[in-house]
Amino acid sequence: MELFTPGTGFIDLDIKIAYGLCRLGFEAGAGDMSITPMPGGFKIDMDVNPDELPSAYKLLFHRLLSGKHLYKLPGIQAKYIDNYPVSDLKEASLIDSFLEIYSPEHAASIDFSKNKMCGHDDIPSFGGTSGLILAASTHAGMPYKSGNLSQSGHMNTKLCELCGYITVMGILSGVFRLNMGSNLRIVTTPIPSQRIGRKEIELLFSSKLVLENSYIKNKIPLTVLPLSLMARFPSLTDVLSSLKYSLHIVVFESGQTDRVNGIELSQPGQIAKFLSKSTYNVATVDECLKNDDPYIEPLQSLNRVLTGRDTDYKRHQLMVFCRHWVSRVNRSIESGKSQALSLKILLYKQTVNYLLKEEAMLSPEIIENDAVRSFARTMRFFNSDSQHLNYTFVDNIRNASSDSGEFEKTIEKMLRSAQSLRLSLEKGSQEVGESKPRKFINIPSEKEFNELIRLASKDFNQVKTALVCLSLCRPEYRGKMTEEEVGGKG
Ligand SMILES: [Zn+2]
User: Fold this and answer.
1) Is a pLDDT exceeding 70 seen at residue 482?
2) Taking the domains of the chain in order of start, what are their residue ranges?
């Protein structure tokens, strides 16, 4: 059978009705099932005997929706909570006509000047006389008041009780709810942008149960919330990595009356893909979140890398991310220690390689190029050795434009610094009677220098991005590396 959500004009409300109807379908023993986005609403296909629905509705709603605590939802004030729980009287007359109530004809014929949002004017209002609650849709009330669609000026903000209960059922089934800080509630609704089938609906409903009412200690800005949530709760990533959902995130501030603190509509697919690819990627994000004072700047630039559209922009943001991450992580580690670390913490190479390839769209020839790797190795020394720390090389390369000559100048300067440093390290070790220096700095060959300059003249942006990012990640222990170097880095 085919059901249609009413098409209230509020997508975050219609999808909750769709999830509620699917939950009902599961209860009624439905086989195959799917939700398909349609203009203005959602179509639900269910392989179910229509006669089963009314009894399933009675059973499920009386069993699950009679507790008052379920209605502690944003927008329902404590003094009105008694109006909401399911009672025997409500719904008695209407449960036989699901097919009609949620038909395409009904969805198409909604008159916005009528009394109820969902167009079901014959059915009593959800929660008595009150208007549409915030939990049903964050956008409740506002557009209709300002748009004033009806001639009479009537405010069309109510929901019928059937849609109301199904919405609550939808919230309990497919909407992720978390607490953040002392008084914020985060309500995250995945909205499918293409058809999702039974397996995906099941995965969504079960993931929701896993993280129901989890808690995030520190306040995180809305823009990086999708990234932070998915890193903290992998089951969310499982659902969203199918690239089939948008994420509607609302932050509510609890109080006498609940207020919407912010709304974000995000496309979480690339973020989910990134996080599901490797645990190193999750650990990279987690590093920014685990402190009392989360590192917001690296999260923001990473978010821009993952959600950006323009390749040059993504490359730029990737360099910013790597640089911010390394300095921020080390700064906070050192503030807690009396002595500075002899080697700075760098990014995981797996994470940087993934971002360079999949997000910054760098060609493997450049990422794997021996000359690029050799110069990155030299620059890594200056980025990681506390005693000789010097970020000017990486920053000058990062900010160099293709025609300024700054790139070549910095490379040459870094070479000279590396050469004189090598000499002084060797001298130092001779003085204390060691056969070889403890630290090793790589000196690229002249051939590698020429190769790098040639590559840079061909594809400046790619070479620059690779060089900066690789110099800020941990070294690759490949056969090529000399014994000395491995010993020196360790
Ligand atoms: Zn309705």
Assistant:
1) no
2) 1-174, 175-272, 278-489
Query: What is the 286 CA–ligand 1 centroid distance (Å)?
Result: 43
Alpha-carbon torsion (96, 99, 102, 106), positive or negative: negative
Q: Which two tokens stand for residue 210?
A: 């896993």
Distance 169 CA to ligand 1 centre (A): 14
Distance from the alpha carbon of residue 185 to the mean position of ligand 1, in angstroms = 26
- Beta-sheet strand order (sheet of 214-216): 214-216, 176-180, 184-192, 245-253, 259-266
The CA-to-CA distance between both ends of the chain, in Å, stands at 65
pTM, rounded to two decimals: 0.83
How far does the centroid of ligand 1 lie from the alpha carbon of residue 431, in Å? 86
pLDDT class of 488 with cuts at 50, 70, 90: very low
What spacing in Å lies between the alpha carbon of 167 and ligand 1's midpoint? 10
Range from 1-15, 108-122, 251-265 carrying the lowest mean pLDDT: 108-122
- pLDDT tens digit string along 384-440? 998 899 999 999 999 999 989 999 999 999 999 999 999 998 888 888 888 777 888
C-alpha 149 to ligand 1 mean position (Å):
19
Dist. CA 324–CA 472, nearest whole Å: 10
